[in-house]
Automatic annotation (TrEMBL), chain A:
It is a peripheral membrane protein. Keywords: Amino-acid transport, ATP-binding, Cell membrane, Membrane, Nucleotide-binding, Transport. Belongs to the ABC transporter superfamily. Its main location: membrane. PROSITE patterns: ABC_TRANSPORTER_1, ABC_TRANSPORTER_2. This is Amino acid ABC transporter ATP-binding protein. Coiled coil: none annotated. GO terms for molecular function: ABC-type amino acid transporter activity; ATP binding; ATP hydrolysis activity. One of its GO terms (cellular component) is plasma membrane.
UniProtKB/TrEMBL annotation, chain B:
NCBIfam families: HEQRo_perm_3TM. SUPFAM superfamilies: MetI-like. PROSITE patterns: ABC_TM1. The chain crosses the membrane at residues 53-72, 105-125, 146-166, 276-294. It holds the Pfam family BPD_transp_1. Its main location: membrane. Residues 14-23 have a biased composition (Basic and acidic residues). It is found in: Cell membrane. This is Amino acid ABC transporter permease. Belongs to the binding-protein-dependent transport system permease family. HisMQ subfamily. It is a multi-pass membrane protein.
Amino acid sequence: MSLLKVEGVWKHYHRQSVLRGVDLEVAPHEVVCLIGASGSGKSTLLRCVNLLETIDDGAIHLDGTEITDPRADPDDVRRRIGMVFQAYNLFPHMTVLDNITLAPRRVHGVRAEEAEARARELLDRFGLAGKADEYPDRLSGGQQQRVAVIRAVATTPRLLLLDEVTSALDPTLVTEVLGIIRELKDTGMTMILATHEMGFARDIADQVCFLEGGVLLESGPPGQIFSEPRHPRTRAFLQRVLEARRM
Amino acid sequence: MTDGHAAAPYGPPGREDDPDRGPDGPGDPPEWVKSERQLRREAELRARGRRSVSIATASTIVVVVALVVGITKSPGWPRVQETFLSPEAFVAALPDVLRGFLLNIKIFLIAEVFILVVGLLVALVRGLRSPVFFPLRALAVLYTDIFRGVPTILLIYLVGFGVPALQLQGAPSDPVTLGIIALVLSYGAYVAEVFRSGIESVHPSQRAAARSLALTHGQTMRYVVLPQAVRRVVPPLLNDFVSLQKDTALVAVLGPLEALRQASIHASSDFNYTPYLAAALLFIALTVPMARLTDHLAARAARRRTGGGDA
Ligand SMILES: Nc1ncnc2c1ncn2[C@@H]1O[C@H](COP(=O)(O)OP(=O)(O)OP(=O)(O)O)[C@@H](O)[C@H]1O
Ligand SMILES: [Mg+2]
């Protein structure tokens, strides 16, 4: 059974359709990359899955239950989904450790010592052992984003959503964040990433989905999407990306 | 877009653990010896600093002398000196005025606590989204609209004379209590708006991050939004409190023996206004340090961008 099932989802802002009947299935342990031009609706799709936005039509199922049912408890859904934002969105008034342990302690009822031990273990594993007691503004962008990823996985979510987690970063810092994502894949974490890093998408994804103008035009294994895209618009997009990269 | 990620190794980075951040280039880093140029630059800056101090001193002296000469040479000066600057009257009134001033401080401290509570509650109620809270929210809006519009002195009259006139069972009749209630009502509305602006100044992405971690609305407020909001509104809040310290004197109209009232009793019995000067000096002595603290905190807040740190 699929872990996440998005069925015919529509989303409008004002009168503009931002998602037009998007279908998407994500199997357990699968890594899905959403690619597409700026404004194609990648972030919106992720925010809808996390119920940060209310969809206008269609349905989203998580583990077989519909989460877009108005009677569903959004907090219960979000307890099972982690999200990492492009701009990190760490809490500036809390130390790294407090950022990470906030949800385990306050939402999942984990005892303080236990939450702290797990946070330190994660920091250790991702090369941030010395930073537990720092405030976020004392860290580099790459370090902050890694803390944000750790914060999102500290509650062992069923599904992790990553929204262009490297696009605010210096190219030299990108690899360290991608490294942590790769490690998460190795642990079997199910993930959906919106990304502009085509090389990385090709490398890590089990499924690549191309969005344009709110329509999921094409999806498939990375080998197929990147080497022999079926849809001419996918081809055109990849062409543009390639040209931009040469410049 | 950077190229070649497909081939790049993505091992976990682990370099930052190194606590010393010294340069790790090859060889020893060069020692810093101040250059001739830097020494000359610093000498020039020192000279310029000395020059500004002398200019500031000279201009201050000129202004003060002009003021003193202007005032003391004015035709009414001897009379003013007698009625406003009489040392005997000052000494005679000071103990009573000072005793009265302690009451001002008491009013201030009690009112301040309640104002903070009322202001915060009203601001939080205005932020509630659920339709269940509509009546509460409407009440909060009504409260801020009305009590920010009514002059504080008017409110003190209304509460101070209106509440006892109702002759309600258990309603306070003591003028100090009534005065405090009026001040709390008036300032609570201002402080609620200050808190609200602080809450709204926290970027929506902070809320989104908190909600994505499944924190409830209340938890998001308590752990994420309020701590940041409160830090930001400390300077404007202190500013309101400087103004509250002065406004405690308005309670004098209800009759309690606070500083202004004591001063006016002395003034009318001795036909000398010096006691007012004593009261004014006491208020200044209290508000000036508070104003400086406000400036200091505001400057510090401006220096640190987001409020990270331990303040
Ligand atoms: N809160 C909002 N209000 C109105 N319009 C919005 C809002 N959020 C997104 N949009 C619009 O929806 C469209 C899709 O936005 P979205 O952020 O999902 O794109 P994206 O694919 O993530 O783009 P990018 O690669 O630049 O992040 C855009 O045209 C955007 O202007
Ligand atoms: Mg986006």
